[in-house]
Amino acid sequence: MDYLIAFVAGGLICVIGQLLLDVLKLTPAHVMTTFVVAGTILDGFGIYDKFIEFAGAGATVPIVSFGHSLLHGAMHQADVHGFIGIGIGIFELTSAGISAAILFSFIIALIFKPKG
Amino acid sequence: MKLTGKQSWVFEHKLYVNAEGTAAGPKEKEGPIGHLIDKTYDEIHCDQKNWEMAERKLMEDAISSALSKGNLQKSDIDLLLAGDLLNQNVTANYVARELKIPFLCLFGACSTSMESVAIASALIDGGFANRAIAATSSHNATAERQFRNPTEYGGQKPDTATSTVTGSGAVIISQEPSPIQITSATVGRVMDLGITDPFDMGSAMAPAAADTIKQHLEDLGRTVDDYDLILTGDLSGIGSPILKDLLKEEGIQLGRKHDDCGLIIYTPDQNVFAGGSGCACSAVVTFSHIFQEMKAGNLQRVLVVATGALLSPMMVQQKETIPTIAHGVVFERAGGES
Amino acid sequence: MSSLKENYPSKVKTYQPKPPYVLNCIKAFLVGGLICAIGEGLQNFYIHFFDFNEKTAGNPTVATLILISSILTGIGIYDRIGQFAGAGSAVPVTGFANSMTSAALEHRSEGLVLGVATNMFKLAGNVIVFGVVSAYVVGIIRYVLEKMFS
């Protein structure tokens, strides 16, 4: 059942993205930045956590959750360190993802050649 | 006659295409005219280390094929005119570095094929060269990387997009008689009707093609019926109907006399969206397929209008629109009626 | 009757084939949903077979999806998936990984420092910049509001 909810939730977020691409004719870059900022704002209102509880990976896998994680880490460190904690915590939860992306991109570029 | 009307050149001397050379990649090899291309590769690296070197190899192949078919050496050529799509025209410049022929570099985006033929012809007509090579090239990966996105990026392209041809075409021009004669050319003006989408070059280029065709017919006092074929470079499936409607407004009916190189070089099932584009599109199709049809007697007089989108990603990001240009050259079967 | 040349950009829209809206949405839904379902599976895998809990399993899950996406990009398959799925492969974190890997791969010819490293964030940079900037803005607003009403 979890799988079905994740499937549908994630799928629906992608459909919203597809409509932004096809109907509003936004570029992929604009769609992605919109989603990330949306994630930050939704976490700002405390909504995205509930969505994650409900949809599991359907909420954590889309790029929207990246925005959520940025803010979440910032707020967590703000609780500990005060105002300065915002800056300390921003990459706290996203570190794994960004470091992985950098490392793997580098390794792949060493091993493979683009195919065109 | 020389300058005729506003923008056209009617050559005083009889000028001929003595030999042509073409080279292309795997998609073109599998296309409808693949068997007519002199040298083709099974992979778009063309046995080279990177994309840019592959494009240079294609231009070198096209030029050496033309030289060998014309029984000529590099030293027999007085002038090389060449261009490509890349920044600083690296393909043309680095190929010219190897050939050591006196060199004039050109940039006309995808209109370079006919621009180079027109200027080479004018220089020979004026006695500034006896034998010249006009060459151009393009490569799908170098174009994608420069104008759009990295080649392995998973972005979804719309159906209006075109597929840059991986290939090169070269011709040797002189006053020595041969079956294909170059009789006139029309220099285009830069047109810009406000298109901003780099994934829809056909719409951007149609006005330029229309302007050049209309001016050509007006300058030479001809009609569409005086030609067996009016061939555009790469308007593809989107730009071709727009061209026909733009010309209809001027009272010019292209009807069945029009075809487009971007629709000839690939079949629709080759995953090419709206068709082929790129400098090599018009060059490869004209120099292989069209010349063959002319030599076989199926075409007498052809107006080839190469269309170029003067796209600069930075200008588009600065909210500029995409200007375009089209240059036309008339090829005729020598010995036929004029 | 006005000329086609007037208001050309809006007039040529009639010549452009409309994207198959419904089909594109279905494809995006199926592929995006599938990627998220795979993510759910990975998450459960990490919870049951390793020492992760619900909160922390997200990290290795995202890292694994990024690895898979990078490999598919390197092999040359991801761009075809992307053409088919559109937002379905771009919106999940796999799209982020693909944008970085494809840029890194493309610029290998310019060397590791000036090519791969310098250009890696060419396509993904905007996501990180806007994510961080908006997190700061929202974070500061929330912090101030929490302090005012606590």
Automatic annotation (TrEMBL), chain A:
NCBIfam families: spore_V_AE. It comes from the Bacteria. PANTHER family: STAGE V SPORULATION PROTEIN AC-RELATED, STAGE V SPORULATION PROTEIN AEB. This is Stage V sporulation protein AE. InterPro entries: Spore_V_AE (IPR014204), SpoVA (IPR005562). It holds the Pfam family SpoVAC_SpoVAEB. Keywords: Membrane, Transmembrane, Transmembrane helix. The keyword Membrane applies. The keyword Nucleus does not apply. The chain crosses the membrane at residues 6-24, 31-48, 54-71, 83-112.
